[in-house]
Amino acid sequence: MSKVNFEELLEAGVHFGHLKRKWNPNMAPYIFMEQNGIHIIDLYKTQVKLEDAAKAMKQIAKSGRKVLFVATKKQAKELVAETVKKINMPYVTERWPGGMLTNFATIRKAVRKMNSIDKLMTTPSWNNLSKRERLQVSRERAKLEKNLGSISDMSRLPAALFIVDINKEKIAVAEARKLNIPTFAMVDTNTDPNLIDFPIPANDDASKSIALILNTITAAVAEGLAERQATREKSVADKKSQDLEGEEGDDEEETTNFKVKADTLKQAEEDADREAEKKEAAKKKAKLIAKKPAAAPKKKTEEDED
Q1: pTM attached to this predicted model
Q2: What are phi and psi of 105, to 5 degrees?
Q3: CA distances for 255 relative to 165, 167, 234, angstroms
Q4: What is the pLDDT along the chain (306 residues), one digit of tens a residue?
Q5: Residue-range domains of the chain with CATH
Q6: In sequence order, which residues have a C-beta less than 8 Å from that of residue 68 and are 6 or more positions away?
Q7: CA neighbor of 211 nearest in space, from 55, 7, 12
Q8: Cα–Cα nearest to 84, from 230, 233, 210, 170
Q9: Contact, 192 vs 26, CB < 8 A?
Q10: How far apart are CA 188 and CA 16, in angstroms?
Q11: Alpha-carbon gap, residue 10 to 24, rounded angstroms
Q12: What pairing do the DSSP bridges indicate for beta strands 31-35 and 38-41?
């Protein structure tokens, strides 16, 4: 997993915080100094927190679960949409629908409604509608697509949330905390990092800073997905090799059994042949004995008479 060095963070302006009068005291551990009335973020702590967040994101992606990216502020929405599409993860960049997590069933109904409109547009019934009705349905479809199009493939609650500005997305943070969903976020000097499970102290207003942090996180997600795919392919290959070995073993066993049966049959045939030969020899002997003439009686001599 690639690491972001100090120079990259410095060049992207990650260290610039907000005015001192707008700071949140809970951000004190992550503030390095104050300069011209502006707080400067400690980039060494940013490095550590970013690496921890990237490792956690990688493990979530490796497990096959979804991460929802949330960024509705102007300088982040387009950047998030373009970057997150590459890793095929859901995102919210227009407006956070209230109850999106806590009332997820209702959100899923709206998504199903959008899908049903898509199916209607491909059937002959669409042409039977009046021009006014088609316009109304199209407008409703466009509205749903704008708000829910990026989460249409999210069939269950996400495993984690990545948020760019937690002050602007406070409803999303509150819903995630209520459902105990892990949160990852860029926290600036005017935010409360205690609300986030994996806070990343960084400038959440500059597009370069957002792009750097976002690219690091999405790269970790992509790496986790790649490892998951490699593990699945390896398991499939191992299973195939085991099946082939099992088939070869069965063939060898069948061959051995066949040889044993053949040897047994051959021995039985030899025994049967020997038994038949013995019987045949006994029959011949009996015939010879039967054909042999009886011996003539011995004549009596004079000496025998005396």
Answers
A1: 0.74
A2: -60, -40
A3: 71, 74, 32
A4: 667 888 999 999 999 999 989 899 999 999 999 988 999 999 999 999 999 999 999 999 999 899 999 999 998 989 999 999 999 999 999 888 888 999 998 888 888 888 898 898 888 888 888 989 989 999 998 888 888 878 888 888 999 999 999 999 999 999 999 999 999 999 999 999 999 999 999 999 999 999 999 999 999 999 999 998 888 888 887 777 776 665 655 556 666 665 666 677 667 667 766 676 676 666 666 666 666 555 445 544 444 444
A5: 6-98+157-233 (3.40.50.10490), 102-145 (1.10.287)
A6: 89, 90, 91, 92, 151, 154, 158, 160, 161, 162
A7: 12
A8: 210
A9: yes
A10: 9
A11: 22
A12: antiparallel
Distance CA 175, CA 182 (A): 11
The C-alpha atoms of residue 177 and residue 199 are separated, in whole angstroms, by 14
What is the number of other CB atoms lying within 10 angstroms of the CB of residue 59?
14
Please give the C-alpha separations between residue 291 and each of 192, 217, 251, 287, in angstroms, as whole numbers: 126, 111, 60, 6
Tokens encoding 4: 């972001």
